[in-house]
Amino acid sequence: MYPLELVKPMKEDLTQVGFEEMLTPSEVDEAIENTKGTLLVVVNSVCGCAAGNMRPGVKLSLQNGKTPSRLTTVFAGVDAEAVAQARKYFLPYPPSSPSIALFKDGALVHFLERHHVEGGSAQMIAANLQAAYDEYCG
After folding, report:
1. Active-site residue among 39, 43, 47, 83?
2. Three-state SS string across the chain, please?
3. Alpha-carbon distance 32 to 20, whole Å?
4. Catalytic site residue 47?
5. Residue in 32, 39, 49, 112 annotated catalytic
6. 38-44 and 20-21: which strand pairing?
7. Is the whole-model pTM more than 0.85?
8. How far is CA 82 from the centre of its chain?
9. Domain containing residue 8: CATH number
10. CB count in 10 Å sphere of residue 88
């Protein structure tokens, strides 16, 4: 587990632009099972690719005509139970941090694993997500 002081700015990088933190398994269940429309779930982490590529790419992706109805996040290495619960909904994809999941009416419709994040730029991640938003978001 990482100290809260260390991860606070990393969490705020997303919460300051409208992401809701999910800290418990029940919050994860509520969001995924009860969100009508589209839901973005970002598995945040302390790694360099999250800071350099993933978080900037996710924020950039929101500059699109269509965006998810709801934005949520869990933090790997901190909110362990919430992350484990979220990963149950990501199957068949293996655990991966960071990662990004898009759900529509509770069904997983798009997923970016760590290898998509660490090998790509923020612009590539944003473009990938925007294409998914254009397809799935109303």
Report:
1. 47
2. CCCHHHHHHHHHHHHCCCCEECCCHHHHHHHHHHCCCEEEEEEECCCHHHHHHHHHHHHHHCCCCCCCCEEEEEECCCCHHHHHHHHHHCCCCCCCCCEEEEEECCEEEEEECHHHHHCCCHHHHHHHHHHHHHHHCC
3. 13
4. yes
5. 49
6. unpaired
7. yes
8. 13
9. 3.40.30.10
10. 11
Query: What radius of gyration do the chain's Cα atoms show?
Result: 13
Residues 84-88: contacts with CB under 8 Å, at least 24 apart = 84/25, 85/25, 85/28, 85/29, 86/22, 86/28, 86/32, 86/41, 86/43, 87/43
pLDDT reported for residue 47: 86
User: Nearest 5°: phi and psi at 35?
Assistant: -80, 120
And the tokens for 20?
Answer: 């809701």
Token reading at 118: 């660490």
Could you list the residue range(s) of the whole structural domain that residue 108 is in? Answer: 4-136
Q: Which one-letter amino acid corresponds to residue 50?
A: A
Q: Residue 128 is which amino acid?
A: N
Query: Is 137 assigned a catalytic role?
Result: no
Domain count along the chain:
1
The segments of the chain whose pLDDT lies below 70 read: none
Distance CA 4, CA 60 (A): 26
Tokens 């994809």 correspond to what residue?
Answer: 93
